[in-house]
Structure formats: structure tokens, C-alpha cells
Amino acid sequence: MQIRILKSKIHRVKVTEADLNYVGSITIDEDLMEAANLIENENVDVLNVNNGERFDTYVIKGKRGSGQICLNGPAARKVMVGDIIIVVSYATMDFEAAKKFSPSIIFPDDSNRINK
Questions:
Q1: Are 89 and 40 in contact (CB under 8 A)?
Q2: With contact defined as beta carbons under 8 Å apart, do 59 and 44 qualify?
Q3: Which residues pair with 43 in a beta bridge?
Q4: Is 25 tagged catalytic?
Q5: Each residue of 19-29: pLDDT tens digit?
Q6: pLDDT 10s digits, 46-86
Q7: Which is the catalytic residue, given 58, 90, 104, 111?
Q8: Is residue 87 within 8 Å of 10, Cβ to Cβ?
Q9: Overall average pLDDT of the 93-110 stretch
Q10: Among this protein's residues, is 90 annotated catalytic?
Q11: 97 alpha carbon, distance to own chain's centre
Q12: Sign of CA dihedral 45, 57, 115, 98
């Protein structure tokens, strides 16, 4: 049996930009991507803590160390700069393997930097 489980999570990161005129996606600081085990073009769910919106999009790489979290294209209408969001991705795996799997979960600081 295959099940879908949490793979990666960036918990409570602040939106720094919203660009309606971009093609689409979420731009994430490369440091945050690496810490959360996300790759470019990976499908993610975005959960907006401020307004309850939940939507999916894909990741594009932002400038390393910038703290950038930018919602692009139509997703820009679902956030405001300063909103707090949670970014999650999932993996499908065998039920027994899933029991042993540990997701990558990070808790950035107020400047969207990794707490070390």
C-alpha cells in the first residue's frame, strides 16, 4: 500500500513580496529550500495563517540568504506582504517505509532566516 505523507515543511514564514504580473509559483530563498529539502519546480501547498487560504503551486529558487518569500501570478491575490504562511510538500511511499520516514521541518525566524 502507498500513502501520502508530509515530506517538507517551512513553518510560519513571512511573505516578502506578491507579484501578480509574474507567470506563477512561489519564490523561496535557496537557504530555506535546502533546509526544508525542497527542490525547484516541486509542487507545494501554501497555507495562509492570516486569511485561511490554502492553494498549491510550485517552487522557484530565490536568492540565497535573502529571506525572500514571493507569491507570483494568481497566487499573489491570496496573500498580502507580511502574511504568515506555511509551505508543505508531500511524498508518496510504501506504508512500512513511511513509518520510518522523518520529514524535514524548519522554523525560520522573523526575518525568514534559519534558526541555527
A1: no
A2: yes
A3: 58
A4: yes
A5: 999 887 999 99
A6: 999 999 999 999 999 999 999 999 999 999 999 999 999 99
A7: 58
A8: yes
A9: 97
A10: no
A11: 24
A12: positive
Burial of 75 (0-12, 13-18, 19+ CB in 10 A): buried
Q: In whole angstroms, what is the distance from residue 61 CA to residue 1 CA?
A: 33
Closest CA to 103 of 57, 15, 36: 36
Q: What is the pTM of this model?
A: 0.95
Is residue 116 over pLDDT 70? Answer: no
> CB atoms < 10 A from the CB of 38, how many?
25
In the block, residue with C-alpha cell 534559519 = 114
**Given pLDDT bands bounded at 50, 70 and 90, which one contains residue 42?**
very high
Return the sign of the alpha-carbon dihedral for residues 100, 6, 39, 13: negative
From the candidates 25, 89, 102, 104, give the one annotated as an active-site residue. 25
As given in the structure block, the three cell numbers for residue 84 are 504568515
User: Rounded distance, CA 93 to CA 100, Å?
Assistant: 11
